[in-house]
């Protein structure tokens, strides 16, 4: 099957929805100025958003060494999803996915969404068939396919091993794209066996290894989404997490997906569930290039933002434009226009989040006009993957400890 292998044929009824009938038309201009019509007593007003984080105006080329370093780092990261665009790789990926099961589950769930919409008198179901395919893939990936590794189990006596430190990858591991290898030792006196845990960034190797931590999970899952025909972004976060975004044609927007947590469309999970503070979330895709999607994940920078000190905001804008240009230059004019339209719709979505937070801080009265929704129960949960001690150290157990204060360390 080709990499652009379309979704299951039965999706045709819902997958082509494009303009007038989606649930939440993002193109509708929202009355953001309503914020100003809220009570005007200046004591009640939060600082304007620009004071919280200056909005960049003109892109500026990096001119100092820190900015140049950050630019090179982001340009390097932007290659990650480009590596998925390999027909051999995607065919190989399709061969490990139980497609019949995934499509069957997706069809069933889509029917449920349709029935639910009908019973509620809604014109359109919440999620389309394509979305249900990714949701089914997510369940299978988390529950069956991939394994989380803290300390590997000793293959000799099934005891949990202990970390000894890093060791250079051996020849076989290097060939398979390991960038570093962790060395573990079985604590049982009569065993003492050493176990290696090579950290692969190469998706071919991950298809075979099927284990790792968030880096491996997000990388492999993003590629599998691509294999079943989804439009995919790989999202890097400056506080040491990565995840996926998938474009929902049905809702005409990018949807947050975290394979480690089996989380679908729960962008506030990290800040409001894990209690993390976040500086940058940058999304990369093979055709769109790059996007600063931080505002999707950090709704209130005052409560959940980390200082953004890697480079001036104007420089970040320049770097993102540079990566966009690199990926989009070879596209057709109509594809370029489509991506620009999506950029504008996403910017509108982000502005609504900012406005909603400002309104909420002014008072519930103003928020009512802005469709402000509290985080869902699912978004308020602490981290699932990883040991308690490990998540606590990283400040991801929902406790706002030192690791989550500005200047605190998110963990390795
Ligand atoms: Zn052992």
UniProtKB/TrEMBL annotation:
UniProt KW Zinc keyword: yes
Region Disordered: start-end pairs: 1-66, 367-412
A Pfam family reported for this protein in Swiss-Prot or TrEMBL: Transglut_core
Gene: PNG1
GO terms classed as biological process: glycoprotein catabolic process
Organism this protein belongs to: Orbilia ellipsospora
Name of the molecule in the record: Peptide-N4-(N-acetyl-beta-glucosaminyl)asparagine amidase
Gene Ontology cellular component annotations, sorted alphabetically: cytosol; nucleus
Gene Ontology MF: a single term: peptide-N4-(N-acetyl-beta-glucosaminyl)asparagine amidase activity
Keyword annotations of the record: Metal-binding, Zinc
């Amino acid at each position: 099957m080709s990499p652009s292998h379309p979704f299951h044929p039965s999706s045709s009824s819902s997958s082509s929805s494009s303009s007038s009938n989606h649930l939440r038309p993002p193109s509708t201009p929202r009355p953001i100025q309503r914020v100003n019509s809220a009570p005007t007593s200046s004591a009640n007003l939060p600082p304007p958003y620009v004071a919280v984080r200056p909005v960049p105006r003109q892109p500026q080329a990096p001119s100092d060494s820190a900015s140049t370093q950050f630019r090179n780092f982001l340009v390097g990261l932007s290659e990650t999803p480009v590596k998925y665009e390999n027909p051999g790789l995607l065919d190989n990926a399709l061969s490990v996915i139980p497609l019949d099961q995934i499509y069957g589950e997706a069809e069933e769930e889509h029917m449920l969404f349709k029935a639910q919409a009908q019973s509620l008198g809604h014109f359109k179901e919440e999620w389309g068939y394509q979305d249900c395919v990714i949701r089914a893939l997510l369940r299978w990936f988390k529950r069956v396919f991939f394994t989380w590794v803290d300390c590997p189990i000793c293959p000799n006596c099934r005891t949990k091993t202990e970390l000894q430190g890093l060791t250079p990858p051996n020849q076989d591991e290097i060939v398979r794209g390991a960038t570093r290898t962790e060395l573990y030792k079985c604590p049982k006196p009569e065993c003492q066996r050493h176990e290696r845990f090579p950290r692969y960034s190469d998706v071919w190797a991950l298809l075979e290894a099927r284990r790792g931590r968030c880096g491996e999970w997000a990388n492999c899952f993003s590629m599998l989404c691509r294999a079943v025909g989804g439009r995919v972004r790989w999202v890097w976060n400056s506080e040491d997490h990565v995840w996926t975004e998938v474009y929902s044609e049905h809702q005409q927007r990018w949807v947050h997906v975290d394979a480690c947590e089996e989380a679908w469309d729960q962008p506030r999970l990290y800040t409001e569930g894990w209690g993390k503070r976040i500086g940058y979330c940058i999304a990369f895709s093979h055709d769109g290039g790059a996007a600063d999607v931080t505002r999707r994940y950090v709704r209130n920078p005052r409560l959940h933002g980390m200082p953004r000190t890697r480079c001036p905001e104007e420089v970040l804008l320049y770097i993102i434009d540079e990566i966009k240009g690199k990926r989009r230059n070879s596209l057709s004019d109509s594809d370029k226009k489509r991506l620009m339209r999506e950029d504008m719709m996403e910017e509108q979505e982000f502005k609504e989040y900012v406005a909603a937070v400002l309104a909420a801080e002014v008072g519930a009265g103003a928020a009512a006009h802005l469709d402000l929704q509290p985080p869902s129960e699912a978004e308020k949960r602490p981290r699932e993957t990883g040991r308690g001690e490990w998540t606590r150290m990283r400040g991801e157990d929902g406790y706002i400890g030192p690791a989550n204060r500005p200047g605190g360390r998110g963990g390795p």
